[in-house]
Amino acid sequence: MAFTSKKATIHKTYKHKMSGFSKNKPINTQAENEQKEMQETKERFFVFIGKLEEKLKEFAAASIPELIEMNHTDTDEFKRGYLRLKSAVLGQLDSIREKASAVKEEKITYFPYASDTLEMSSAYIQFRNECYDRYSLLEDMCQEYRQRIEDTQVEDYELKYRKIVDEYEAIKDKFRCVQCGSPITIDKIYFTTTYITCPSCQTKNTFEPSSQAKLLEHIGRSLAEQRTKHILQQSDAAGKEERDLYHKAHQLRLSLIHEKNKEILHQKEKEMEELEQQRQEAASRQPILYQKYLRAMFDEWNKINPDLTNEHERFFTTLATHNNR
């Protein structure tokens, strides 16, 4: 069912307002017709948003693997081929979102209703809020896919770390004393110039790590963050849940402005109380989950760069104290 043209709708509304309605069409019938049109518009809007979501899923399913592959294989120093493709993909995503936003504004925000009654005002608020909620699900999906697209450019620190470990395994038993030639086992991954004493003749030998091994100091935190990203996402989700619950409660509060039915008032007030309780629970979870993320991330960082544990722990204490206020 297609949307009616904006021009025709506005013309129809203008005629109603100027004529004071037809003598053969009572006001209550006019209101019923407008409520019916709201319902039909909402149904069409829901179908429209659903189709955009399907299009978005199909597009992302095809584009994201291609972006990942191109990011890994693009030999250009500045990855210009990859960046052009990413820009095109993000442009298509924005096009889908803008199309939904335009229809929301035209068909929902500026939905014309001529019956100037409390009943119609309340009906419009409910209609608008339901459509806005449906639209917000598409917005969330767009944000999720945008992040996944951006993440295709993130370096694979796990791969870099694996190369460092493989290199260490290959050379750890091949180092020999410059004085007596005895083998010296490299007992861990060194990422800075280190003096190692020969167990046979006690000569101090200079061990110079490779340029690849020296990267370990710089990729440690990024790798730890990648490994614990799922915990950070739990914290972010709790924060988003808290905001969404506040928004829902606010919409319910707005819907009470013209509500006269005491039973409905009582029901909605009860819903608002439940939403507020859920909001407070989500708000209390968020900092706990973030502290959990910080501890897990620093534990991983210490495993990757154990020689820097004391320095890391001082940094952790600073961050944990700051984010616990």
Verbal overview:
- With 325 residues, the chain is mainly alpha-helical.
- The protein folds into three domains: 154 residues, no CATH class; 59 residues, no CATH class; 98 residues, no CATH class.
- It is built from nine helices and two strands; from the N terminus they run H-H-H-H-H-E-E-H-H-H-H.
- It has a two-stranded antiparallel ribbon.
- Strand 1 and strand 2 form a beta hairpin.
- The radius of gyration is 31 Å and the shape is elongated.
- The relative contact order is 0.07.
Shape, per Cα inertia axes:
elongated
How far the N terminus sits from the C terminus, by CA atoms, comes to: 53 Å
Radius of gyration: 31 Å
Task: State which percent range the strand residues make up.
Answer: under 5%
**Structural class given helices, strands, pairing?**
mainly alpha
Give a count of the beta strands, DSSP E runs of length 2 or more: 2
Q: Which strands sit side by side, in order, in the main sheet? A: 1-2
SSE ordering = HHHHHEEHHHH
Helix content: over 70%
Largest sheet: 2 strands, antiparallel
Annotation field: number of helices? 9
Kindly state the mean pLDDT as a whole number? 86
Structural key phrases:
3 domains; single chain; 9 helices; mainly alpha; 73% helix; 325 residues; two-stranded antiparallel ribbon
Brief summary of the model shown:
The chain is 73% helix and 2% strand.
Secondary-structure map:
Elements: H1 6-19, H2 27-73, H3 80-109, H4 118-151, H5 157-171, E1 194-197, E2 204-207, H6 216-227, H7 229-255, H8 262-304, H9 309-322
Antiparallel strand pairs: 1-2
